[in-house]
Amino acid sequence: MAQDDRRILELRAIREKSWQGGGTERINRQHAKGKLTARERLELLLDPGTFNELEPFITHQLDEANSVDRYLGDGVVTGYGQIDGRTVYVYAQDFTVYGGTLGEMHGHKICRVMDLALRNGVPIIGLLDSGGARIQEGVKSLGAYAEIFRRNVQYSGVIPQISVLLGPCAGGAAYSPALTDIIIMVEKNSYMFLTGPEVIKTVTGEVVDAEALGGANVHATVSGTTHVVAKSEHEALNLCRRILSFFPSNNVENPPYSAPIDDPLRMDDELNSMVPLDPGTPYYMHAVIERVIDRDTFLEIQPDWAQNAVVGFARLGGHCVGIVAQEPSIMAGVIDIDAADKITRFVRTCDCFNIPLITFVDSPGFLPGVGQEHGGIIRHGAKVLYAYSEATVPKISVITRKAYGGAYVVMSSKYLGTDVNYAWPSAEIAVMGAEGAVNIVYRNQIAAAADPAAERERLIQEYRRQFSNPYHAAGAGYIDDIIEPRETRPKIIASLAALRDKYAPAPPRKHGNIPV
């Protein structure tokens, strides 16, 4: 056998060994938990045959005397490939090698692909499955985490960053996904927390397991940390592909266009009867959204947290848009602290990546109460105000019913720089609801009436007729047009076309100072 042939065979043998990760036994244990290996995950995420690995021969750099075995790749698979024909950089932590723990060279590999993603202006996707910092490497592992966090921050708003949690993500490791644009978790398999159950038990005496402390359901419904939850790893990776289809490759490109199969001029007569005549009767904003957008394109983000607010991606005429709305069927669509945070984060995400914003407004205002005031509703509400004012993407709002007080102002009102403001005939735009306004303005008149209840009802109806209808606001220039609900889809699509080349540069500054 020629010397060159022996070298080729040796290379193939080394590669084959590296593809086995921590060995057959550990791979079998991974599969027994219902989890895939790092390479299996990459095969599902990327277009077939497009993955190219980088730095597969790296090993940890501990002293030879250290008892830790050396594995090629050091517990993380990195490289680049394609999703729907678009280049992405990826890293997938390998739990079969050192439990996916992060050491110096493991961190080096992740930082390397992050840097390459930035230089080439393409998304970075992390598949996380790690026991945290590698204890044997001490402060070197902490330094490696810090290098990743710094890049998460520096590259934020420049290239899309998506984190898919497919196993544990504990301790300081949780900060990296928290800094990225989108977090995807898997039911029962992934969890995320800063301090684990044992530490909590020691420090506070509380007894809790990993799932109840930081499982996918907790972060989807209570903390609001994760954006979407999948039932399986396959679903999570498909969700990642779908979410990426709404994002451009970087902040100077426009989102991908997809030829629509839905008529841009389609009108839906059911929208005309969607809002009940009684302003106190709820309806479903989700039903409104689905009838306006391209059919079957809505992907809701954080659907189980702060459900009185609705955010998500969709397409209109084939173009990607971000949808923000209130849900009148939950808490009457009132804005509370969590809803304000949810809306703010989504608006800023869309603005980073040139995704136009469509806002459907139906809110009676901010949630009153001592708990909300002491919890900082002013500060959190100011975030929404800041996000909409700061956003330079095309902004279109549709007031479907209530737009009272501060909620009217912060929800993409005309004077926050919104480009086109529509209202339905059912819109009520006022400082407050008719009932509250009448109680304040006509308090003495009602008290002096022979029948106070009847007089109050008469004044409420008169106030609604004069001041709470959209014609009063339109007459003062606060609304650009009052439209039939059925016209909403073609009107928005036409407005988006007119705004496609919008140019609204921000004043020179280092950065703003959003209230946090």
Task: Briefly say what this structure is.
This protein has 516 residues and is of the alpha/beta class.
Write structural notes for this entry.
The protein is of the alpha/beta class. It folds into three domains: 242 residues, 2-enoyl-CoA Hydratase, Chain A, domain 1; 193 residues, 2-enoyl-CoA Hydratase, Chain A, domain 1 (Alpha-Beta Complex); 34 residues, no CATH class. Helices cover 39% and strands 18% of the residues. The chain contains 20 helices and 16 strands. Strands 1, 2, 3, 4, 5, 6, 7 and 8 form an eight-stranded mixed sheet that branches. Strand 2 and strand 3 form a beta hairpin. Helix 4 runs parallel beside helix 5. The longest helix has 17 residues.
